[in-house]
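Hey all, sorry for the wall of text incoming. These are the two entities for the joint prediction.
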Amino acid sequence: MLSGCSAGLRLLVPRRCVLLSRSVTSGNPGRAAAVDGVLSAFRSICGDDGVSLGETVREQHGKDESVHRCRPPDVVVFPRCVEEVSALAKLCHRHQLPIIPFGTGTGLEGGVGAVKGGVCFSLRNMDQILDLHPEDFDVTVEPDPGADASLCGMAATSASGTNAVRYGTMRENVMNLEVVLADGSVIHTAGRNRRPRKTAAGYNLTNLFVGSEGTLGIITKTTLRLYGVPEEMVSAVCSFSSVQAAVDSTVQILQAGVPIARIEFLDEVMIDACNKFSSLSYPVSPTLFLEFHGSERSLEEQVNTTEDITQSNGGSDFQWARDAETRNRLWKARHDAWYAALAMRPGCKAYATDVCVPLSRLPHIIVETKEDLIESRLTGHIVGHVGDGNFHCLMVMDPSDQDELHRVHLFSQRLARRALAMDGTCTGEHGVGLGKRSLLCEEVGPSVIRVMQSLKDAIDPNNLMNPGKILL
Amino acid sequence: MLSGCSAGLRLLVPRRCVLLSRSVTSGNPGRAAAVDGVLSAFRSICGDDGVSLGETVREQHGKDESVHRCRPPDVVVFPRCVEEVSALAKLCHRHQLPIIPFGTGTGLEGGVGAVKGGVCFSLRNMDQILDLHPEDFDVTVEPDPGADASLCGMAATSASGTNAVRYGTMRENVMNLEVVLADGSVIHTAGRNRRPRKTAAGYNLTNLFVGSEGTLGIITKTTLRLYGVPEEMVSAVCSFSSVQAAVDSTVQILQAGVPIARIEFLDEVMIDACNKFSSLSYPVSPTLFLEFHGSERSLEEQVNTTEDITQSNGGSDFQWARDAETRNRLWKARHDAWYAALAMRPGCKAYATDVCVPLSRLPHIIVETKEDLIESRLTGHIVGHVGDGNFHCLMVMDPSDQDELHRVHLFSQRLARRALAMDGTCTGEHGVGLGKRSLLCEEVGPSVIRVMQSLKDAIDPNNLMNPGKILL
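and here's what came out:
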């Protein structure tokens, strides 16, 4: 990957002036000069290959997977270790340049846009698994040791996913973080090398940085809880005649105490898109994807209880995915839901809402949301981690159709407010980023916003860390 | 309870001057005058019965269950609702009087001592269960709706207990907090009435206040996760010939993925004390108290796996506690360990250490600790939530024996540093309070302490909230 950056960099010498002058025209000549003056120092820290002014590279790093418009940084740096991150941050601090941490760019609320320009810290070269302690059920990793989203990016957005109903979100699974603060100092939120399963030692900085979306510091290591691979795993798919029946089943399965590992809802629009995108052939009706983890006997019991419940709600017989290959195919289809939705209207863009409500409110909010989609003449695919009360509506729209964009915006605001009215949140896992700053104010109220702002001011007094995100 | 306070108050008018003059001699005439000047306003808020200057009342509120010496507040107030807490806090803020929140005084690190005098807010009159949502698995309560420790006090110290290995600590189970800040303003950390099971909405204030030990605000409501009552519960006791065998069994049970609900270790000194205090007759050797939750079939499987493991480590046959009464007796004995230890040397005081290490380090640290006890000529009872790597050494000592006190202090410091050297923490659940402020510095390092101090300064700029705790 670095050789690509390097090639980009070599091409860039003549282009740089154009780009910087564009920054100048955007109204901040001081910052442009500061960036210009600091480039050689950046290169001395992370090498020529580790600094890129290439337009393509900058644009890749100025956007995530959302519809928020690209806001490229002035420069992208590719540090290889925490010492380089710290040295680069010290330079940015000295020159008062904004710092935007970047994992893989898979965010959904515009969290990586360089709204005030500055220096994007791409952490993709920090990809090592550093300390694996299977006997203690923990591991310490650099930001991006594999998979899709980066792990430190997931920590930064308090992310979760299909397994959260059983194993918790990043909030419950991050034990310690190494963080580079805006002034370049390096802290370990729970103390260096600490990894007890419980602690009551001082303020919980770990969970303050989890979900801080890069606005308090750059996460350069995370210590995570591990879980044993279950003796047996089995997945199943169950179709229902109505949303209400599928969601009622979910609530009842949890109320029955079944330690279900995953329980994902897809409405008929979503399952249709997944069938087409992933060559599946499930009935086009409200659907649950389920997964059970445990010993053979415990699995049998979990499955029996769950089947009793789904059948009492008129659900279909389970379609099984027992072997690893079939299971993986099923979950890949679920994880590709975003791309499946996009594929339904080629050339379009998608926006994924993200709300979370108390379990018992789920049937009501999903039914209302589907009615709203029809009234708003929008294509929306509903998919969600319903075991947590968390769901998304993936809306596919023509970015050149201003009216449709406007309807999507209004619909999303209504959906978020519907969740707020039901004691819920405007974001269960995607974070606030740029897109939900006003909704956050509505959700927590001005006094909590003031406390959040005071914490931001305390840790990042010059507002250098990912400015303009979370707080207005 | 209030009539007692009222009686104390009536007796107190002549005594008050003496008490306040004692404050004066302690070097703060300004504060004494401020307290004097604000009393009638306090009474107008929470009634004559809600304000106490009684020496006995003040002394009851100046200490917890630890060996830290009593530091009585200047006055104790008994607000009945959040509005009264807020109004009282506003007065304290205006007069720059320290505020010390008080739940039930069952802390173990001196967290309630009024080291700078001030106003103790006893929250015992706030005892309501406000919103119970069994269908959503959550409840909102006032500070002290029952049980032993108060629930908001548990939130304030990031407490946990015997069930944490399966159900998590307060960190994982608090969903929202109502907090009165030092200036009297009232916030809801996740927004008013919010109770989604997941959220990524802004900074995680909830987990900043969990474990803040009253130094950031007064917790007046907490929203907690609930769990279904298991279909079946069964407890068992298993004896071992060595500490190593008992702790090895614990680690192996967890590694085998048994979803054990409780797994508590008691060394032979502790089980002996419990036998005597609670009229039990277990073998006087290292012991595990176990509890399994689940369906009948799942229980059978959990028990079989666990028995295989304990027997392979030379453990005894299980002694069962199947019916509710026997189980309750067993766990009452465990929870009375503190009093059992104290009863071994009447007239003595106890200190409970509290460390937590990665699971695999447990056998080593417990064995070393027992050797250290012998070398230090101390009576120590080891008991712990070993499934979390967390254990306590309850030391009983003669408070008039300065040499013994000194040996306890040195031993406790060595134990904490031993935990730190093993990647652990100096406190898994008791908190920092007064007693572990220096150890906290060693644990997290000066840069983290600076961040913690900056958060404290941001939220409580006048250092009115429980001053002198957590941070030096």
